[in-house]
């Protein structure tokens, strides 16, 4: 175990069953969003991530979310240098740190994202760890962020990364979680798919920028939550104005009604807030969008059958 990991096991046993899942889950719990400052020093980033996760766990968070690209600056010229191969644990310190911290504190971690090397390709990948420290799921960013607004912002993520080609939904002791990374949030179909598959919450590690952040970061996540009547959690790195890509920040938790439960500014911080899954049912009962939906007039996605 790396020297910077030093913690005691935290356990709770309060469980309640929620009718959208087959397994008993905790229906009321705290989530922690670790809006950490990312530098070019990978080891420092690992230490910071550990410290913020510890802070969130000590404030009672059972689910902790990290930002997109938390082990390296969001910069095309650095992704390959910071990339890790998860198949080979020894060469993946970021992966190991999250696994160890998850088991140390007995929490679920949606591990933001880091550059992943696999078979000669680079992916923007989020790993989800359970309270036993085991990897539960891996999401590779599906929609790469290519943008060119003359005189404003130009970025081509597809020059660096290959796109993932699978949605990711994972059952945990704190509910069914759908995963998307940053630009994935722009695509309502992915969130609809997660809703159809019974997700309670969608976690979007992100790193929006100063051009689209102010206008759209909050709007899009509230829309995903309100349209699908589920919780949405986003987590961004803090703002670093020194780099060429200035990050918007504002990690946020949104309720199934589209309300902001908790948010932050752009500095390094840990947002801890409570989720109560009974709000999903309440929202869906008071405004039964699924019943009101006119699938006879429009149908954008196949509603996939529940997993056995
Ligand atoms: O969709 C946007 O406006 C920003 C997306 C982004 O920053 C990303 O995917 O990294």
From TrEMBL:
<feature type="domain" description="CN hydrolase">
    <location>
        <begin position="29"/>
        <end position="277"/>
    </location>
</feature>
<dbReference type="InterPro" id="IPR003010">
    <property type="entry name" value="C-N_Hydrolase"/>
</dbReference>
<dbReference type="GO" id="GO:0005739">
    <property type="term" value="C:mitochondrion"/>
</dbReference>
<dbReference type="GO" id="GO:0006541">
    <property type="term" value="P:glutamine metabolic process"/>
</dbReference>
<dbReference type="GO" id="GO:0050152">
    <property type="term" value="F:omega-amidase activity"/>
</dbReference>
<dbReference type="InterPro" id="IPR045254">
    <property type="entry name" value="Nit1/2_C-N_Hydrolase"/>
</dbReference>
<dbReference type="InterPro" id="IPR036526">
    <property type="entry name" value="C-N_Hydrolase_sf"/>
</dbReference>
<dbReference type="Pfam" id="PF00795">
    <property type="entry name" value="CN_hydrolase"/>
</dbReference>
<comment type="similarity">
    <text>Belongs to the carbon-nitrogen hydrolase superfamily. NIT1/NIT2 family.</text>
</comment>
<keyword id="KW-0378">Hydrolase</keyword>
<protein>
    <submittedName>
        <fullName>Omega-amidase, chloroplastic</fullName>
    </submittedName>
</protein>
<dbReference type="GO" id="GO:0006528">
    <property type="term" value="P:asparagine metabolic process"/>
</dbReference>
<dbReference type="GO" id="GO:0006107">
    <property type="term" value="P:oxaloacetate metabolic process"/>
</dbReference>
């Amino acid at each position: 175990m790396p020297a910077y990991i030093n913690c005691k096991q935290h356990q709770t046993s309060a469980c309640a069953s929620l009718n959208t899942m087959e397994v008993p889950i905790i229906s009321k719990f705290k989530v922690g969003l670790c809006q950490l400052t990312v530098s070019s020093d990978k080891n420092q980033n690992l230490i910071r991530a550990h410290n913020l996760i510890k802070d969130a766990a000590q404030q009672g968070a059972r689910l902790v979310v990290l930002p997109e690209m938390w082990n390296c600056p969001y910069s095309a010229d650095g992704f390959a240098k910071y990339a890790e191969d998860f198949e080979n644990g020894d060469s993946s310190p970021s992966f190991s740190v999250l696994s160890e911290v998850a088991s140390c504190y007995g929490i679920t971690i949606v591990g933001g994202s880091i550059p992943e090397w696999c078979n000669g390709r680079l992916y923007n990948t989020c790993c989800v760890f359970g309270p036993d420290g085991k990897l539960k799921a891996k999401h590779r960013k599906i929609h790469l962020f290519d943008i060119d607004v003359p005189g404003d912002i130009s970025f081509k993520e597809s020059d660096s990364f290959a796109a993932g080609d699978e949605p990711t939904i994972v059952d945990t002791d704190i509910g069914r979680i759908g995963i998307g990374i940053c630009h994935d949030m722009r695509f309502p179909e992915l969130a609809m798919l997660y809703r159809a598959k019974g997700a309670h919450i969608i976690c979007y590690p992100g790193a929006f920028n100063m051009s689209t952040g102010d206008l759209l970061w909050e709007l899009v996540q509230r829309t995903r939550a309100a349209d699908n009547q589920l919780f949405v959690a986003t987590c961004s790195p803090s703002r670093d104005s020194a780099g060429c890509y200035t990050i918007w920040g504002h990690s946020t938790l949104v309720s199934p009604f589209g309300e902001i439960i908790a948010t932050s500014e752009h500095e390094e911080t840990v947002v801890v807030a409570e989720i109560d899954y009974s709000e999903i049912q309440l929202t869906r009962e008071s405004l039964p969008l699924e019943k009101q939906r006119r699938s006879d007039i429009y149908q954008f996605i196949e509603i996939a059958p529940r997993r056995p």
